[in-house]
Amino acid sequence: MCYQLKTNNGATEAVIDDNCGISKFYAIATTLAEDLQVKFLNQIDDAETLDWDFQYKDYFLTLHYSIFNGVSIFPQQVKSVKKDNKAVMEVANYLEKKAY
Predict the structure, then answer these.
(1) Distance from the CA of 9 to the CA of which of 67, 72, 85, 88 falls in 20 to 30 A?
(2) Type and span of the H or E element at 89
(3) Beta carbons within 8 Å of 40's beta carbon, 6+ residues apart
C-alpha cells in the first residue's frame, strides 16, 4: 500500500504504510541499507517520531515514522521538485514491490 501526498512546497511524500508499528520502520530501513546500499546520514529519534536522513543516488531523502501516520519518505529539501519527487517515488515503488 503506497500512495503519495503533496506537501505545501510541491514535494511528494510517499506513504509506505499509514498503519504500522515501529518494527516495520526498522525493517524498511534495513531493506534500504542492504538492497539499495543507502547510508543513513542523520538519525533523529523522538518519543513519537523518527526521521532518518539518507542519500539515494544524488538525492537527499528522509525516512519518516510517526506513531500517528506510519512510515513515509520525502525529500529533505526541494531543489528540483520533479527530480526530487521522482527519486521519492522510485524508492517507494521499490519498497512496494518488496511487499511493504
Answers:
(1) 67
(2) helix 81-97
(3) 29, 33, 52, 53, 54, 63
Condensed to tens digits (0 to 9), the pLDDT of residues 65-75 reads 999 999 999 99
pTM: 0.85
What are the backbone dihedrals phi and psi of residue 79, each rounded to the nearest 5 degrees, phi first? -100, -50
CA distance 11 to 48: 23
Rounded distance between C-alpha atoms, residue 70 and residue 56, angstroms = 21
Distance CA 60, CA 42 (A): 11
Rg (CA), the chain: 12
